[in-house]
């Protein structure tokens, strides 16, 4: 052993380390989606395990793997962020021969044209997340990859709406029928949904479809440009469609089950909805982490 | 000169530095307010200027000054956060004899009991800010101090409300009179207001009064605990009282002018309102930074 | 059912939700530690599960539970942050009768006197974390509680030190013996360690002891006030004691095993060390999450 | 007036608002630099003033201006981020006819190839900032634009190095001459420098040159990929070149004055250096905000 190779010093009676890695690495990557090249700004975290007998992990290899694979994508775009993550996790196991486990997590800004009307479309921001985990068992390597989307939208509260309706009816009992026929005031607020789906190797899960699923599960999507009438329409749609965080999570789960009929039961799915409550100084949230098989077989689960 | 005192090395033909200091110092302090001791968690930044002929500022003196004054307040509580800031800025000039200018900025978590009903009160979080600037001119030292409050509340949009009212009237023209008499749906959201007021030495500006001014300038204050009926009342109040960020800023300014009739014209006042728009993925804001004299003399300014 | 109780609406063929709760709730609490009352600033997250047949969780009950238990601690201080978390998680199951699972997570600023010398001591900031999870199985409730500490310190890199030593020896081969006897230059940086230990009901794990374990596992602890000689001593100590993030994690694990001989094997322990690398724009980290029994039985694990 | 145009309501005896705008708008833009197209992820804030007689600013016009100018750059790349900011500030004055003042601030991720050796180069992250302010006076519009860069590097402390050298000499007085000839241990850490320069209309200030100025003013630049020998070289260079935050600021100022001899005296320059102290839990910083004329005429200023 090279005496300067402090990392390779042999330890006796020490502990293995689950993850040794680097975090907060900023890079750009190019992804081809639907024939269009997207340049994405990434923040990357990678790690491998370290056996008990080895003093240190060779951290510079992580930066080399990322330079090789991520920087290269700018010339040779990859098909998806989760494919990029998978390539990295496999190469990490290759470069760190002592490791049995590699984890890669990537966050990326992502933009799509959106608008209430065709002449008022503009670029709206989204966030993509990709995860890949590779594990060596003997000669075999098992790899998983996951794609996640993070989307902002709007929810209006169904409970406060009924309370306010009852206030109105109380004061104007002769208008009860009319008041029961229109959306009435409630609190509404920004809602942030994160949806992750595992992607088996022989399947494709399109991040843009996932964004569509999430946007259609809010009380209303939100937009960059809203002229006065469009603003009214967004508000109207949100109040026609009031939702708790629980409703948002359940609606996303239902749409995932309905859309991805070809995904096998063991595929992992998770959804989280966070509501930046306008009537409180704190946030409300709901989440569910499960498999698509569990969701398919749901009966009265509880 | 001590050869180890690298900071005191004499430079020729160099630049002065406006501020050299430390930031992100976390401490606790005790303040007595209305006879009650409050223990506050602080984040502190302090800086002094450095003349062109001196290599480095003695940074350890900043930490010593803070230990002396802030740690000591836990045994001997001070009257206000801005008094604490002032004590520090004066002591900085004392300890850094080469400095002509000292700046201190303190952020603190602060809590007050709040509730829609007496039996549903609980501790609500606020933020205090204090600033003190001391300047040496010859033998004289001029010091200013400022107290700031940061408060979360709720605004409902007046414009979207009128648009939605027009939608309703359009569909139900026979209900026009009734629809003009009730609050109708709009977008509403969390709003964050920061208000700063300069405090002359012979005056007292109470942070709790400033919090009251801000809370009463939202469409509605917000609360930790809201049972169903209370939630309805908050929503109702917000929609009876729709406001743009501009309205919030102007209402705070008006109340400051009306409340602090004893403050001299040159007292500095600033207000900022940030709305976490429920219908957009971005925030809207308005701000004004001025003197109370300017506000008093306002006519059609523009 | 009350028609306004939208949350209690019965659903058919829907999904259960793993967690529905609130996050970012700011409060103060009082803890008695070693006969001394500490007022802590908290940020709290609580959640319970929601069965598939129920539309919504009663979120206002969470705020009520927190007002009852946390606000009350200001008058009646509790013994530890993890006891506070446990009280809350049990009360959540009580108040949400439909829930089988309750989770509580609390972050708190915490301060201790520290210094290189007695006359230069001052308040240094730390972070405490507490977690409690309660689960109902039939009539029985199982509860766990965990206490965590987050501590900043300093590491110097053992590998770069040996490389720089080899540079020096290369240029000054006649000084080889001397150069092998002194600490030589390396990169060093801020390191953030988080240590969690599960606390069985009949045991006490003192957060201050955990902070001591972590501080003694860095290359050197760091301090608020460092006069010139003390600064030299901290640097010297760090370079006498160079450490990778892996070393920090392993040293903390070893000390936990040695200190807590009375904790049962199934007690959960986790450690993470993050190094804000001075030679890179990104951070390095290592972590291990395991049980104290696993650590005790470690042999050449890998 | 359109009765739905709530913003245009005429107010009497109200206050003007300094800034009404939107913040946190995320977009992508294309910039051509040295014949190469860069796709940048932006975060944008824009605001205009509002006269006292007008109830509200037309916020949707801001989003329209950004869609028009920023989204369009993806097809028709602009020359620089500061040109983009200027285009926006001028268009804001055009669209908000009541405004006399428009401010635009843009942050952008930016990447350059960097490395200690040609075969170990990789994309390193930087941040660009652009500011433009346009003011209408009668028929005339005055516009300024500023470009800023934010760069991470490394500093080693000159003071702790001399203290540690004195410790060594004290213990090994016979090695004094040798010890005075080599770099000895010190604390070192990540340092973040922000440099802004105003860009007159007829001049070009290249952000890449500014990044070079900053990187050469640290004790050493830092890199993504560092094999063992390179790591040693970075550490060595940093310790051959120890610097306080004050030194970093002064060296950047000196280089700016020397490089930009063609910029007129009134051009605004500001520099800030923040050191994430490895021996403290808090940061140290120094800053100077001035004009290039002031810097040129500096004598013993203080």
CATH topology of the largest domain in chain A: Urate Oxidase
Oligomer kind:
homotetramer
CATH architecture of the largest domain in chain A: Roll
> How many β-strands of chain A, per DSSP?
9
CATH top level assignment of the largest domain in chain A = Alpha Beta
- Counted by DSSP, the helix tally of chain A is 8
How would you characterize the overall build of this protein?
Four copies of one chain form a homotetramer. Chain A is α+β, with helices and mostly antiparallel strands. Chain A has two domains: 18-138, Urate Oxidase (Roll); 150-302, Urate Oxidase, CATH 3.10.270. Chain A has helices spanning 59-73, 81-95, 158-171, 176-179, 207-215, 228-240, 245-259, 292-296, and strands at 17-33, 36-50, 101-114, 122-137, 140-156, 188-198, 220-221, 268-275, 283-291. In chain A, strands 1, 2, 3, 4, 5, 6, 7, 8 and 9 form a nine-stranded antiparallel sheet that branches. In chain A, helix 1 packs antiparallel against helix 2. Chain A is elongated and about 90 Å long. The model of chain A has no long low-confidence stretch (mean pLDDT 95). At the A-C interface, strand 1, strand 2, helix 3, helix 7 and strand 9 of A face strand 1, strand 2, helix 3, helix 7 and strand 9 of C. Strand 1 (17-33) of chain A pairs antiparallel with strand 9 of chain C.
């Amino acid at each position: 052993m090279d005496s300067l190779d402090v990392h390779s010093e042999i330890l006796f009676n020490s502990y293995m380390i689950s993850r040794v890695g680097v975090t907060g690495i900023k890079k750009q990557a190019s992804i081809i989606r639907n024939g269009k090249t997207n340049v994405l700004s990434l923040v990357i975290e990678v790690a491998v395990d370290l056996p008990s007998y080895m003093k240190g992990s060779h951290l510079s290899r992580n930066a080399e793997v990322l330079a090789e694979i991520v920087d290269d994508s700018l010339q040779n775009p990859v098909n998806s962020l989760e494919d990029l993550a998978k390539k990295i996790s496999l190469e990490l196991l290759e470069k760190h021969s002592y490791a049995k486990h590699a984890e890669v997590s990537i966050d990326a800004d992502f933009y799509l044209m959106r608008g209430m009307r065709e002449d008022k479309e503009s670029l709206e921001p989204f966030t993509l997340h990709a995860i890949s985990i590779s594990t060596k068992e003997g000669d075999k390597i098992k790899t998983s990859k996951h794609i996640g989307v993070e989307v902002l939208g709007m929810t209006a509260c169904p409970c406060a709406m009924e309370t306010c309706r009852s206030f109105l009816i109380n004061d104007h009992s002769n208008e009860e029928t009319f008041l029961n026929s229109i959306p009435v005031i409630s609190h509404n607020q920004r809602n942030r949904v994160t949806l992750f789906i595992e992607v088996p190797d022989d399947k494709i899960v399109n991040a843009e479809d996932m964004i569509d699923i999430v946007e259609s599960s809010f009380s209303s999507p939100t937009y960059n440009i809203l002229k006065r009438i469009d603003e009214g329409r967004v508000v109207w749609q949100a109040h026609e469609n009031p939702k708790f965080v629980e409703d948002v999570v359940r609606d996303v789960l239902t749409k995932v089950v309905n859309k991805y009929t070809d995904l096998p039961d063991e595929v992992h799915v998770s959804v989280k909805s966070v509501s930046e409550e306008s009537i409180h100084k704190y946030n409300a949230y709901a989440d569910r982490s499960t498999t698509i098989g569990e969701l398919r077989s749901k009966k009265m689960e509880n």
